[in-house]
Each structure stands twice: as structure tokens, then as C-alpha cells.
Design brief:
Keywords: Signal. InterPro entries: Bifun_inhib/LTP/seed_sf, Bifunc_inhib/LTP/seed_store. This is Bifunctional inhibitor/plant lipid transfer protein/seed storage helical domain-containing protein. With about 120 residues, this protein is mainly alpha-helical. The chain has two domains: about 1-35; about 35-115, no CATH class. The protein has helices spanning about 1-35, 35-55, 60-70, 75, 80-90, 95-100, and strands at about 110-115, 115. The protein is elongated, with a radius of gyration of 22 Å. The relative contact order is 0.10.
């Protein structure tokens, strides 16, 4: 009887490991898929249109903040060339970082994104 109990315990333990592995794979597969160029273009347009008032000194709207939280770094950084970087520098990189963080998104320090490097 004890042998049967131990065998059931081993089976449950093994099943638990497999379920954990399946959950991990299910979480990683969407991240590995990436974002399509069309999705990136939509994200960029949403950020530009909904966050434009920030350029003129206003606080970001709820919609702007949602776009900031939803944005994929691989979509945003390629668009931060010298022209966009000069606009961001005009606002002030530390202020932009503070606004992004105020929207609930963390910004890594000393991170190069397009033509901008975040402060240390």
C-alpha cells in the first residue's frame, strides 16, 4: 500500500513539473513572436497623436499613458533618430523619463534607444 502511495506522489510531482514547464512555454511563446511592422506603425502613430500635447508642456493624458504602457521598445527606438531626439532633448530627457515613469512604465538607466541615451 505504501509503495502505491509513493508512486502516486512521484506521478503528481512529475505532472506538477510538466504543468509548470507548459505555463512557462505559454508565457514565452507570445514574447518570442515579436511585433509586426504594421503593429509597430500603429503604436508609433498612437504615441505621436495622443502624446503630442506633452511637447507643448502639458501632462500626458490617460490615453497617452496607456499608449506608453502598451508600446514595445522594438517599435519605438527605431523612430528615435536625430530629428526626434532633438525634440526630446528640447523637452529634456530627464523630464521625458519622469513622464514615462509617471505613466507606470519603468525606464532603464544608461539605455540607448535610437539617438537617445537615458540618464545614469
Amino acid at each position: 500500500m505504501e509503495m502505491l502511495f509513493k508512486k502516486k506522489q512521484r506521478i503528481h510531482k512529475m505532472l506538477g513539473k510538466w504543468v509548470g514547464m507548459l505555463i512557462l512555454v505559454a508565457m514565452l511563446v507570445p514574447m518570442a513572436h515579436g511585433v509586426t511592422p504594421s503593429e509597430c506603425k500603429t503604436e508609433k502613430n498612437n504615441l505621436v497623436n495622443n502624446c503630442r500635447p506633452v511637447i507643448f508642456g502639458r501632462d500626458p493624458s490617460a490615453v497617452c499613458c496607456q499608449n506608453v504602457r502598451d508600446a514595445h521598445i522594438e517599435c519605438v527606438c527605431p523612430y528615435l533618430g536625430p530629428k526626434a531626439a532633438s525634440v526630446i532633448r528640447g523637452i529634456g530627457v530627464p523630464r521625458v523619463v519622469k513622464l514615462i515613469e509617471g505613466c507606470g512604465r519603468s525606464v532603464p538607466r544608461n539605455y540607448k534607444c535610437g539617438s537617445i541615451t537615458t540618464p545614469p
